[in-house]
Design a protein that fits this description.
Radius of gyration: 36 Å
Shape: elongated
Order of helices and strands: HHHHHHHHHHHHHHHHHHHH
Structural class: mainly alpha
Distance between the termini: 142 Å
């Protein structure tokens, strides 16, 4: 039933205010009519057409704050006329991004209106929960920091495996992105291994267990001979450059591998994983913690935390975590190139067969005499 004149809202107050000189009522009228429209008064065809005409006329003229407030209210409402959303999207900036992110459906008309000002709105697209897998992959491939963060924070979206891989790789050097990914509850712990040092205590434990479950299935190469004595000797002399160089060489990592962590306070934890991965015993690692860096040695809490990390991480898991954090494979063999190699190894070069001495000529056989 169409609304009667008695049901129409009383706007006499606005009429009185309109008589005040130098008072712009357009923002007020737009907000009031928006609220009335969303409350369903009136919602017949004529009422919707009247609201559409009023809103499309006022939206280009109001200030950005009013337009943003109206966009946040109208964009998610299914009853909002498409022309009104398009008018909001044409304003660009935060108003446009709100429409792109919250509109029930992105039609060609809305996308055309959103692109009118020529600036990118990919981050707003990445915030949509109904993002299809194709567009999701295309957005993550663009590599924009704002897009990455929007995807990571979009908890209503199930991320593709390759998208997760890209985001985690970039999060190594982007703390805000790392925090967003670690805050999701739908990602596998093993996928977050490169972010192990940015994770909290409980999450670290889950990541280490997931990594260890896979690492334990592979043989772990033996520790380099005398590596403990060499490293503790350098630590006792506080030869930090020499210590890091020897440790990196033993693991097959570049000498700058500690720079893989942007947070300087976490680099000693990365060093702890490296000590565990290279095969040091606990007492040797404790000696390093107490001698290599005076600032670390003076903090009992810091030393205890490093020892706890060393104890609770197995060597296979430490190798895989170190490899994931540094994004480099570790050396699998520590033996010299001229070391003994068994002939029966799959990749071993088979020895040449020794040359045999020439055989002696056969002696002439005795001629068998035949009877006459």
């Amino acid at each position: 039933m169409p609304s009667s004149a008695e049901d129409a809202p009383d706007l006499s107050g606005l009429i009185e205010l309109s008589r005040v000189e130098h008072l712009d009522l357009k923002p007020v009228i737009l907000r009031v009519r928006t609220d009335l429209f969303l409350q369903g008064a009136p919602r017949d065809r004529d009422g919707i057409a009247a609201f559409e005409a009023l809103a499309c006329g006022l939206i280009p003229t109001v200030d950005d704050e009013t337009a943003l407030v109206v966009a946040r209210k109208l964009a998610p409402a299914t009853a909002t006329p498409e022309a009104v959303l398009a008018s909001l999207a044409e304003r660009g900036g935060a108003v446009r991004d709100t429409v792109v992110a919250l509109a029930p459906a992105l039609t060609d008309t809305l996308l055309t209106a959103a692109a009118k000002d020529g600036t990118s709105f990919e981050a707003a697209l990445a915030a949509r929960a109904d993002l299809d897998r194709t567009r999701q992959g295309a957005l993550s491939a663009s590599g924009g920091a704002a897009v990455d963060l929007a995807l990571a924070r979009n908890t209503g979206l199930s991320l593709r495996a390759d998208v997760v891989g890209r985001l985690v790789a970039r999060a190594r050097t982007a703390p805000e992105l790392a925090a967003a990914l670690l805050g999701r509850t739908d990602l596998a712990a093993a996928d977050l291994a490169p972010l192990f040092l940015q994770a909290g205590e409980a999450q670290r434990s889950a990541i280490a267990q997931a990594v260890e479950a896979v690492a334990a299935l592979r043989p772990c190469p033996p520790a380099p001979r005398e590596i403990g004595a060499i490293l503790t000797g350098l630590s006792g002399k506080r030869d930090v450059p020499g210590f890091v160089s020897v440790l990196a060489e033993a693991l097959g990592l570049p000498g700058s591998f500690l720079q893989a962590v942007t947070d300087a306070s976490a680099r000693y934890e990365l060093l702890t994983l490296a000590l565990r991965a290279v095969g040091l015993h606990e007492e040797e690692a404790v000696y390093v913690f107490l001698t290599l860096n005076e600032a670390v040695a003076r903090s009992a809490d810091r030393v205890f935390a490093l020892v706890r990390l060393f104890r609770t991480t197995t060597r296979p898991a430490a190798r895989d975590l170190l490899s994931a954090i540094c994004d480099r494979p570790l050396a699998e063999r520590t033996a010299r190139a001229d070391a003994h190699k068994p002939y029966h190894a799959p990749d071993a070069q088979k020895p040449r067969a020794p040359e045999r001495a020439p055989m002696r000529p056969a002696l002439p056989g005795r001629i068998r005499q035949q009877g006459s």
